[in-house]
Amino acid sequence: MKKTLGILTGLLSIIILVCAYSSYKNSANQVTNIETNEVINFINKDFAEKDLKTKNDKELSTQDFETVYKLSKSFLNDYYSQRAGSSMIDFSKYIVNENLLRYSNKRILVENQDMDIKEISIGLDKSQFIHDEKSYYLSYAIVTKDSNIGGFGEAVEILISNINGNLVISDWYIRYGAGSSSFDEKFRPNELINSPKIWDNQEYVKKIFKKAGISQSEFY
Predict the structure, then answer these.
(1) Cα 192 to Cα 25: distance, rounded to the nearest angstrom
(2) What is the DSSP code (8-state) at residue 184?
(3) What is the residue-averaged pLDDT of the chain?
(4) Where are the domains of the chain?
(5) How far apart, in whole angstroms, are the C-alpha atoms of residue 94 and residue 179?
(6) Adjacent-strand bridge partners of 117
(7) Can you say how many angstroms the Cα of residue 154 is from the centroid of all Cα atoms in its chain?
(8) Strands 135-146 and 39-40, sheet pairing
(9) What pLDDT is stored for residue 27 in this prediction?
(10) Distance separating alpha carbons of residues 128 and 111, to the nearest angstrom
(11) CA-CA distance, 217 to 151, in Å (whole number)?
């Protein structure tokens, strides 16, 4: 009964998250919507270094969606493997910005807890190519089942950009359902994930690091 209630709670949280964020828009950018709706299996290892390459070395385009999708799937599989306690994620495989690397590693230290995850559904709820920024925005709905609390739901937003012909994650954000706050929601409340250069803004970074308790030398 407790497991069933936990799963239903997780599903309800996802429904709330999808409804709340499906209207995500950036009025300053013209975007192209790409309709996708797929649920993938946990620990899908179909990503390799060669998949980092984009069609155009200078900028990201709509032709790179398949590669972007593979990268985001691999990132989520590695991240939730870490959350499940089955492996350690190396963020430097996906992130090159030192500030975002430090922030992501701090998240793991704060949120990391072994979870007996038995099953996870990772569904791509929304994808947009942001023309002005030449970046892809992807929003995933996550539902898990485990042996402890029955399951949980959350939304993960990822921004992917082109750096010297290679795909990188330039920002990412996790939103929980009602009644709790994620690491991001505590230290970057109500953030719009639409700027690939946000972590180059030193004033912004200084403010976030101070809130999250990240020292300037941490994780070097």
Answers:
(1) 9
(2) H
(3) 76
(4) 2-212
(5) 31
(6) 146
(7) 11
(8) unpaired
(9) 28
(10) 28
(11) 36
> pTM for the whole thing?
0.76
Indicate the burial class of 63 (C-beta count within 10 angstroms; 0-12, 13-18, 19 or more).
exposed
What residue has token string 């939730």? 80
* Cα–Cα distance, 10 to 177 (Å, whole number): 8
Task: Give the 3-state secondary structure percentages of the chain, helix then strand then coil, rounded to 5.
Answer: 40, 25, 35
Q: pLDDT of 32-77, one tens digit each?
A: 333 344 443 333 344 444 455 556 666 898 889 999 999 999 999 8
Name the 3-class secondary structure at 69: helix
CA–CA distance from 185 to each of 68, 117, 179, 211 (Å)?
A: 25, 23, 12, 12
Confidence band (pLDDT; 50, 70, 90) for 80? confident
